# Entry
Amino acid sequence: MNQYHYYLDLSVRLAKARNKNYLAEFLTEQRNVLDRCFGGEDYVLATYYIPNELLVPFDLPVIYSDRIAGFGAACNLLKEEEWKKSDQYTSRCSYQIYLNSMLKKKILPLPKLIVASNYPCNSAYQFCKELSETYQIPFLDLKVKRQESTEAYQDHVKQMEQIFQYLKDHFSVKKSIQSVVNISNQMILIKKEIDDIRNQYLGIIDTQDMLNIFTLYNDFGKESSVEALQMLRDDLHSKTENYSWKPGVKKLMWLGTTPLCMSLIDKIEEQYACKFVCEDLFLFCAKEIHFDTFCQDLVKRIMDSIFFTEEKRVFKTMEIAKRYQVDGIVHYSQRICKFLPPMFPKIQKAFSDIRIPAIELCGDGIERASWDKNYKEQIETMMRILCEDKKIEC
Ligand code: SF4
# Structure
């Protein structure tokens, strides 16, 4: 049995044993997709914001670049000396280096097609472009202009339609677009119900779980994802009756990506009498899509997303922080990442203007040793500020 398959099987069983059926369902689907790709089936390599609904009609397995590198690292598919030393892209983030090594060492077969966007990460786009040139893999791109103008919108729609047309010309449709639209809309409705429960019962679900499954965003339009979201919603419903917020516990917001060692989040909550109540990565997808305006709606979703501009992210996270009366912000920044870390200074300034402290923890989602050892100090400083500010004893 392959190492990733064994690891994911274990994770599924562990999730079930802990009554986290939604997580088990999510991981089962990831394992199934990887089984197909590692087994030699034609697959597409895509970057994070390429909508899965574009590819589901053709029943093409899709590997999202950061997700596969994260899985690879979690499953220890490559030893550190194998992926770190073997790579030519020394200025790249560890996710790209790891994925490149997986392809180079033929642990993962080459994709049949690459579909990449420069949003949210131009570095991931450039990396995919280089992969396509190195291995002569057909490359489709969505060059997003980060402007909220009609001209930009129309240009994005045109590119999205071209990608969709290419897929129609090269692959046979196996699922009707209407059914994909229906499934996607069903997911959006369930996601909204989950958000509503979380709004009403702050902290009812662990942030660690949310960060484990936020990449469901990449699985819109798939039946298995509807199941996973339904299970999550039902699980939350069942907890509401006996749930209440513990007085005195500080409310924190988690911004940014996921650390390799997720138990860190539990540790922070246990040691400092605080609870994370929201994550910006899980703030996705609010609008339905339609058959007649398929590509337009997918473009609108991208342009509506929280990370589309720095201002949007600052505005949206501040609005939520005020609504939930959040006490502090923890921003996790991936090493050498060109996406979220450069936004931190603006986030910190905006929150400090409304007297909410924001700290940045730095680490690496792939390389364990690159963890910022000073994180305890930073959290302790923040908790001290919170206690002094609110005149509460620590
Ligand atoms: S730079 Fe950041 S967003 Fe881009 S691929 Fe690397 S980790 Fe992902």
About this structure: Residues 66, 93, 95-96, 121, 123-124, 334, 337-339 surround iron/sulfur cluster (CB under 6 Å). Strands lie at 44-46, 62-64, 113-117, 139-142, 250-256, 274-279, 328-334, 358-363.
